């Protein structure tokens, strides 16, 4: 089947138009409500925890990989369908067509200018087509989930621009600013459905968390550092050690930290090392003499704790599995020089 636009989906009778509109709406709502429901049910049955806690299944890593593969495949299928619908299924126009409709569909309506009902149906279907994108991006991908609103909406907007430009270049369709608005709004609805359904399902205590967050925000807004809270993070941890060679062998040789700088103060036996790994920096003061060092701990977060565990085992570094009492996430604990605890927290 080939078409010039969504117009070709419609018949000139209200029954067919109603079926198209209702069908598109039902598909979008089924995606929003049934996907997280069955996903949560299946994962609960196989012992895979989607709420950030410890999974009861021994094959949690494998099950999680299979789940991600299925969801990624579903997203690829959706993209293929979208690409087919907006490009491949359309017959080329004889010339380039640009239509700067924008919000005119609404302004003309407010001015009592009668428009064909197909205009509204096309706008509505464009919204429906992009709801899955706004919904699936934060549902599947961690990067979008961390900033669901801003990143997902930006991706929907950029995707819509790419589609409109491809339609213009290939002459398969019309470059229409109203479509960009409709697509972006569809992404907004998709993210809203994700927050309403999927996020609340995998975060059952979201109301309590929101309550605590609002209480903290009210109390902390007069704090000195509150204006900088979003950009403020711990960039360096300071440790003390007794033996420089042990620090070198464990942190640099075994774990792979990079030595950024070495400082040897005058008239003392102490050596100061600045080590880094990604965005994490360790400042180690090597006293080079036998002293009782107080208890020290480092907490590093990463989503692939299973992968870290395998690498530690391969390097013959003993690690102990456990559960973080504050987040209920999995942790790996490794004992370093001077009984320093290096804790890997599953994020």
Total number of β-strand segments?
A: 10
- Helix/strand structural class: alpha/beta
Question: What pattern of helices and strands is seen along the backbone?
Answer: HHEHHHHEHHEHEEEEHEEE
Low-confidence spans: pLDDT under 50, at least 5 residues?
none
Mean pLDDT across every amino acid position: 81
Taking Cα atoms only, what radius of gyration do you get, to the nearest Å?
28 Å
Beta-strand percentage range: 5-15%
Q: How would a crystallographer describe the biggest sheet? A: 4 strands, mixed
Helix fraction bin: 40-55%
Q: Strands of the largest sheet, in order across it? A: 3-6-5-4
Distance between the termini: 47 Å
What global shape is seen?
elongated
Helical stretch tally: 10
Protein name: VanZ like family protein
Domain VanZ-like: 75-195
InterPro entries: Glyas_Bleomycin-R_OHBP_Dase, Teicoplanin_resist-assoc, VanZ-like
Keywords: Membrane, Transmembrane, Transmembrane helix
Structural features, described:
The protein is an alpha/beta fold. It has two domains: 6-209, no CATH class; 236-346, 2,3-Dihydroxybiphenyl 1,2-Dioxygenase, domain 1 (Roll), CATH 3.10.180. It is 53% helix and 15% strand. It is built from ten helices and ten strands. It has a four-stranded mixed β-sheet with strand order 3-6-5-4, covered by helices on one side. Helix 1 runs parallel beside helix 7. The two termini are 47 Å apart. The chain crosses the membrane at residues 14-35, 70-89, 123-141. It comes from Pseudobutyrivibrio ruminis. This is VanZ like family protein. Residues 75-195 form the VanZ-like domain. It holds the Pfam family VanZ.
């Amino acid at each position: 089947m080939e078409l010039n636009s969504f117009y070709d989906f419609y018949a000139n009778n209200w029954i067919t138009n109603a079926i198209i509109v209702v069908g598109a709406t039902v598909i979008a709502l089924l995606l929003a409500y049934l996907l997280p429901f069955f996903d949560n049910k299946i994962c609960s049955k196989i012992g895979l925890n989607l709420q950030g806690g410890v999974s009861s299944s021994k094959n949690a890593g494998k099950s999680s990989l299979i789940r991600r593969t299925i969801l990624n495949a579903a997203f690829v299928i959706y993209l293929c369908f979208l690409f087919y619908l907006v490009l491949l299924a359309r017959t080329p126009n004889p010339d380039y067509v640009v239509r700067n409709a924008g919000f005119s569909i609404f302004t003309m309506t407010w001015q009592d200018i009668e428009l064909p009902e197909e205009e509204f149906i096309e706008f509505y279907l464009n919204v429906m087509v992009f709801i899955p994108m706004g919904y699936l991006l934060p549902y599947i991908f961690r990067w979008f989930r961390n900033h669901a609103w801003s990143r997902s909406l930006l991706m929907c907007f950029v995707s819509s621009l790419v589609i409109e430009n491809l339609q213009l270049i290939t002459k398969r369709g019309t470059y229409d600013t109203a479509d960009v608005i409709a697509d972006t709004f569809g992404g907004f609805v998709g993210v809203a459905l994700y927050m309403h359904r999927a996020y609340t399902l995998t975060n059952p205590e979201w109301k309590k968390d929101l309550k605590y967050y609002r209480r903290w925000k009210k109390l902390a807004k007069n704090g000195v550092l509150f204006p900088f809270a979003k950009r403020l993070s711990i960039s360096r941890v300071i440790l003390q050690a007794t033996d420089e060679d042990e620090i070198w062998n464990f942190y640099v040789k075994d774990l792979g930290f990079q030595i950024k700088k070495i400082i040897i103060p005058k008239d003392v036996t102490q050596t100061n090392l600045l080590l880094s790994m990604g965005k994490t920096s360790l400042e180690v003061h090597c006293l080079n003499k036998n002293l009782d060092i107080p208890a020290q701990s480092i907490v590093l977060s990463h989503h692939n704790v299973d992968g870290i565990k395998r690498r530690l085992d391969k390097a013959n570094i003993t690690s102990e599995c456990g559960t973080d009492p504050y987040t209920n996430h999995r942790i790996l604990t490794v004992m370093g020089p001077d009984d320093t605890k290096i804790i890997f927290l599953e994020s």
